[in-house]
Amino acid sequence: xxxxxxxxxxxxxxxxxxxxxxxxxxxxxxxxxxxxxxxxxxxxxxxxxxxxxxxxxxxxxxxxxxxxxxxxxxxxxxxxxxxxxxxxxxxxxxxxxxxxxxxxxxxxxxxxxxxxxxxxxxxxxxxxxxxxxxxxxxxxxxxxxxxxxxxxxxxxxxxxxxxxxxxxxxxxxxxxxxxxxxx
Length: 183
Known about the structure:
Layout: H1 3-18, E1 33-43, E2 46-53, E3 61-68, H2 71-76, H3 78-87, E4 94-101, H4 110-123, E5 128-132, H5 136-141, E6 148-153, E7 159-164, H6 169-182
Parallel strand pairs: 3-4, 4-5
Antiparallel strand pairs: 1-2, 1-5, 3-6, 6-7
InterPro entries: YtfJ_HI0045
Protein name: YtfJ family protein
Signal peptide: 1-20
């Protein structure tokens, strides 16, 4: 391989490494706390917010969907989320946690992102929904902007799988298999 070909190859790979997350399989999820907004709760039919922390993830196998506050990011892994719903994992040992980064929304759409997150909580009341007003999780986990990440954790919050961007069919099957194996 000549120098020019090698340089072109390296140049195409650099953008991929520039936004590498810091979620390492076999290691605990990096600690994060969200104080501005946080976990969305339903109290007597009304929406409420409470501080949220990764400390709350212990005890259940989880799939975390960390998404930018954009419809394109939400749709990016809709097939993954549909597969999880279809799998009907037991709620006593499994939970999906969706973390929506309102700070990574198209300018002027923050209120729509908030109301959409609240509507999703009403529609999927058993799921954990977290609204991250300041992008704390994205910054802490070094996630790509305008994207979606799928992370699988065991009951001790150890990362079993982490991938950003759209998951392929093999990835979806792998996530479902990992969750089943750890329930």
